[in-house]
Write a structure and sequence with these properties.
The protein has 343 residues and is α/β, with parallel strands linked by helices. The chain has 2 domains: 181 residues, Medium-chain alcohol dehydrogenases, catalytic domain (Quinone Oxidoreductase, Chain A, domain 1, Alpha-Beta Complex); 126 residues, NAD(P)-binding Rossmann-like Domain (Rossmann fold), CATH 3.40.50. The protein is 29% helix and 27% strand. It is built from 11 helices and 16 strands. Strands 3, 4, 5, 6, 7, 8, 15 and 16 form an 8-stranded mixed sheet that branches. Strands 11-10-9-12-13-14 form a 6-stranded parallel sheet, sandwiched between helices. A two-stranded antiparallel sheet has the order 1-2. A hairpin with a 2-residue loop joins strand 1 and strand 2. Helix 5 packs across helix 6 and helix 5 packs across helix 10. The longest helix is centred in the middle third of the chain and has 13 residues. The protein is globular.
Amino acid sequence: MTIPETMKLGLYFSNEDVQVEQRPVPEIGQNEVLVEVAACGICGSDTMRWYREPGTREKGGINTGHEIAGRIVQAGESVRNFKTGDRVVVSHHFPCLQCVPCQDGNETACEEMHRKHIEPGGFSQYVRLFDPCIEKGLFALPDSMTFEQGSFVEPLACVVRGVRKTAPIESRTVLVLGSGLAGLLHIKLARALGAGRIYAVDTNQKRLEAASQNGADEMICATDKLPRADRVFVCTGSQKAAESALDCVNLGGHILFFAADGPDKKLLIPLTKFWTTQPSLSFSYGAAPRDMKEAMELIRSGKVTVDGLVTHRFGIDQIAQAFDLVANPRDNSLKVIIEPNRR
């Protein structure tokens, strides 16, 4: 195919200021590839001000797209395991797999996880993958999977990682605080792993209905009394949800904090109570290559279905509207997808 000289991309300055610019298509080196982006989901973290806006102040606009599926349109002469035409899923960051955290199975605590190995990002028509990304951040998309399904591999991989930390799940009661996209993926994975009763909690009735449709057994308004469970997943940045989780875990159970609410937030832990009841507290950030591979297989095999989660699709020219919808959910919105090369 003929690769154009320029491309469109989205740049985030704030939730209220997402712009479209025209830039040259990146040139690749001999150990790099160029991917035409077919689908890139907007992650909830893309609209978290405390997480994103420091980057905009430092660099100007940033392209945060990282839930990427597309097709290789150019491969450097030294690339061996991939070729032009291959359908792929791209991970923008990954661990070194050699440091102590990596060796301990805490790969996403690795300092390398904070390096970006793509240019500019998934909210663009084309993305350049640097040399390290070919080995650790590029995954072949099975022929049976659509590009849209491929864009779910990274978000599901993050969930796979967190849920693994709370194993076993089979026959355990599960409480999911927050029924946005992350909460729904937790519900779906817990159900696939044979969980017992699954409770979904949210303040939004429409999202509780979505939780019911995606595998939850009981839906509870966040202002009501919450049940106890063996596994408690905090999938919202709400400080109240984090505090509630401490009161909801069963004896010897497990609380997993999947979401956070800013760098200065603190949580008062009832040490003496937990000393006697012995729950575990874990935190989960990002996804490592093994999580990506496991998530890919879960979707390919149909054990976790994602097709019904997409509620809105936008071209690159409508990216500001798409970000506004994610930052201010409405119209039953769940997963919002950008299709940069929509014709």
